[in-house]
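Trying the structure run again after the queue cleared.
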Amino acid sequence: MRKRGSSMDIQGMIFDMDGTLLDSMGMWRTIFPDYFSRYVSPEQAEAHMAEAETMNMDTSLALFVKTYSVPATVQELKRGLIARAKEGYAAQKLLPGAKGFLDQVAAAHIPMAIASCTELELVNYALDCFGLTGYFDAVFSASMGYPSKSSPDIYLAAAEALGTDPGVTLVAEDALVAAASAKGAGFETLGLHWPSSRFSPQDMGEVCDVVLTCGWPGVTFDALRSLS
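Done. Tokens:
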């Protein structure tokens, strides 16, 4: 765990879901290329996923259809992806230590929210599958009118729902662009870096107050609050 800056007065927490609480980014990195490869080359499918990683599904699919002149509608593609994703989530796992950390935050009576790029139907489905729904006071999906996490609007809406100001709200993210967006809006930020991340731990450290390079095991909420 790396740290920067002064101690954090955490009064609320906002979590991304895929790659932050669920070990599901590998699933998405398989589903998208496999699904898109029926229309484009594997290289083009991979390139599109990298470009669209922080977009909501409608925005991502609209860009895909436009860029590659795909002979299918956004809604047709979306129905297929949602069905594939529901099957995929059933085979996924919580990231080690994630539930224990949520238990600590809940025990400290800190309100929590989800802010995810994943379709709301899938967010609710996954949270229910893994028994996480009860931890969160609010659930926000980019499909609720937030085209991309490159804008902090989804985090600002989540903080408003929690009743906390950005400066005392910690955002946990595994996407560099998303973490930078939250930090730019005044949030405290915790970044998770994985071996499969498309950026370095140093890159994440440039925009985050705390960087976890080994996930949640061994991380305590009290330790986060006492960093200085």
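The chain has two domains: 12-21+95-226, 26-91. Worth checking whether this holds up in the mutant runs.
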